[in-house]
Amino acid sequence: MIHDHIEGVALEGGVKLIEWLPKIGGESWWRFYVFDQLTVTQQRALDPSAGQLGDLDPAALFRVLARNWAELCNHKALTGLQRSGFKYVKEVQDIRNDLSHKPIGYKIEPDDLARYLDTLKRLLKEIGGNELLINKIHADWIVAIATPNEAVTAGESTSKKNESDTSAKTSPNDLIVTGARTHPQNTDVDGSAALIASKASSAVQKALANATYIGIDFGTSTTVATAVALDKDTGKMVLTPLPIKQPTRYGDVIENHLVNSVLTLHRGKVLFGSDAYKLKSTSIEGETTFSSFKMQLGINKGIGYPRSKVA
Predict the structure, then answer these.
(1) 233: nearest Cα among 195, 205, 191, 203
(2) 3-state SS record for 100-150
(3) Which backbone phi and psi does 263 adopt, to 5 degrees?
(4) Helix, strand, or coil here: 244?
(5) Using one digit for the tens of pLDDT, what is the confidence trace for 151-201?
(6) Going by C-beta distance under 8 Å and a sequence separation of 6 or more, which residues neighbour residue 5?
(7) Roughly how many angstroms between the first and final C-alpha of the chain, as a whole number?
(8) What is the largest CA-CA distance in the chain?
(9) By CB distance 3.0 to 4.6 Å, which of 19, 122, 172, 275 could disulfide with 182?
(10) Does the predicted model carry a pTM greater than 0.90?
């Protein structure tokens, strides 16, 4: 639920940015107000001279909004933004970054969930976002503050009422015409906790009867592998994050289910994961360290790493 709301708020931010930035920046709006505000990693898959805000993920959209907040406030007649609202976009960035690195089935304390939802709602109001989405987040906030003793799984909806109420979600059609990216809305219960809590269908039970499946989430920052098996006693699916042995610079290994999506050449040996990430800051991207591969999937730019020192 919280992840859906974060993405919805990001899309609303994209809607507003596509409305404001071309009017403020003219023909060069993309280069100066979008491309130049992104990290090198985020820039890698984009054209510096032209592009669409719909190509950006929530992390990049929030970054563009935050980096341009002061300039957008200078055009208050157009945007209506207040400088005091900057704290909301920064906190939403922190919320997104924190939750994106939590393990499967992570439980959010009700107080934290209520604060996250309140911040998302305040940011939406600040930018003049979709009223239906504001109401949807407010409804989940009410449920969160009413159940102080029940932690909520990150991917789980807070109430049955909210699970079935899809009318308050941002309209995908509204976002398409403004150039913002959209994703199909899933009206089913979301998240791994819902999978574990609900009986597997007969088709799934049959598929899992004599097999275990491995799912790999290849992420821009971190990668996770999870085993999916059937508990024959309960008839439920069980998801188990797999600890991965990751080599260190000292010749031993560490085990963790979170694997940083980074390769780094260190003293003739290619490391991956945790230590590769720690050594990244002392290495040269594209030569002795390699990351954010996901940003370049589907893009043909010829030789990807012409300066690579890894054969």
Answers:
(1) 205
(2) HCCCCCCEECHHHHHHHHHHHHHHHHHHCCCHHHHHHHHHHHHHHHHCCCC
(3) -115, 135
(4) strand
(5) 555 555 554 434 444 333 333 333 322 233 333 333 333 444 344 434 446
(6) 117, 120, 133, 136, 137, 140
(7) 44
(8) 64
(9) 172
(10) no
